[in-house]
Specification:
binds zinc ion, eight-stranded mixed beta sheet, Aminopeptidase, 16% strand, alpha/beta, 336 residues, 38% helix
């Protein structure tokens, strides 16, 4: 009942806003929208999303489904549309797809959409996996950094784009927010998406994938101003240059490409969801803080997150997506 009333209230607010903006478009800079992503908001969401009630969010289990509902309810409350149909934010994945890894349970990707104003058919996919390891020996694996941090960051990125759209400053190309499931079991959700895309892959301009951006990795102790980028120059020099320029202009994070090296033994380029896009010749950037002592342990908890740093990284991702969405020409895979 409450949910239903809330949705009506949001729908009314949104329609009032658009009526108002038809006549007076509010002039705002991208950085004003980026600044709506704050450490405080990220913290509030992440304490719930990576809290014990989500039971470690293992794919196919109750906690994972609760996490999916949490995201869906946020999008409904914020008046952010689904690309599938009204009020249906789930791309359902049948149990068989998971090769017994979910003990016969189905799961779902959660999707949200901000339609482009000029080139709506060109899609920018911003992804993060929302599943984690579940509960083992009575211990809940909260996965605050992995990948609660990416999940909540892209939720706030979606809200910033929606606010821009409500004020008549929406992106020219479309933004697809893709919360994938099954990553920890073997990149299943992103593979399902690229096997069954909601929009043709040939119209998919880029994938920005976010997996662990809330912590300072063990190799970077004391450095509260960096992020590892992986993949940005593998398929598109244009994307790499754009990403560098956006960071120089707005965020000034130290962009570390150590793990982008083809000879790096960690092979992170092949180890998160962006790879399913890259293998389809779609340019990608993978945002990552590096591993730490709590990686894949029950001690990856929300109070250990560096919220100011996470906000700064999320702003870089928003502003990079903004530039890709609004620039004149489409980013091309110029290194194929
Ligand atoms: Zn992860």
């Amino acid at each position: 009942m409450i949910r239903f009333l809330l949705v009506i209230a949001v729908a009314l607010t949104v329609s009032c806003n658009s009526a108002q903006n038809a006549s007076s478009k509010i002039k705002m800079a991208p950085v004003d929208y980026a600044n709506t992503i704050t450490a405080e908001k990220l913290k509030t969401h992440l304490y719930t999303f990576a809290g014990d009630e989500m039971e470690g969010r293992r794919t196919g289990e109750n906690g994972n489904n609760k996490a999916a509902e949490y995201l869906r309810n946020m999008y409904m409350d914020e008046g952010i549309a689904s690309p599938i149909e009204e009020n249906n934010y789930y791309q359902s994945i049948p149990s068989e797809y998971f090769n017994d890894a979910t003990n016969g349970s189905p799961s779902q990707n959660v999707v949200a959409f901000i339609k482009g104003s000029e080139k709506p058919e060109e899609i920018i996919v911003i992804s993060a996996h929302y599943d984690h390891l579940g509960t083992r020996d009575g211990k809940i694996y909260n996965g605050a950094d992995d990948d609660g941090s990416g999940t909540i960051s892209i939720l706030e990125v979606a809200k910033a784009f929606q606010k821009a759209a409500n004020e008549g400053n929406g992106p020219k190309r479309s933004i697809l927010i893709l919360h994938v499931t099954g990553e920890e079991l073997g990149l299943y959700g992103s593979k399902y998406y690229t096997d069954n895309p909601l929009f043709p892959l040939k119209n998919t301009v880029v994938n920005l994938n976010v997996d662990m951006i809330g912590r300072i990795g063990s190799e970077k102790k004391g450095n509260d101003n960096y992020i590892y980028l992986i993949g940005s120059d593998k398929l598109s020099q244009e994307l790499h240059d754009l990403s560098e320029n956006v960071n120089k202009k707005y965020t000034n994070l130290e962009l570390d490409y150590k793990y982008n090296d083809d000879n790096d033994p960690n092979r992170f380029y092949y180890r998160s969801d962006h790879y399913n896009f890259a293998k389809n010749d779609i340019p990608v950037i993978f945002y990552f803080n590096g591993t730490h002592a709590d990686y894949h342990k029950e001690t990856d908890t929300p109070e250990k997150i560096e919220y100011e740093l996470m906000a700064k990284r999320a702003k870089l991702i928003f502003l990079t997506a903004w530039e890709i969405a609004n620039r004149e020409g489409r980013i091309t895979a110029d290194k194929l």
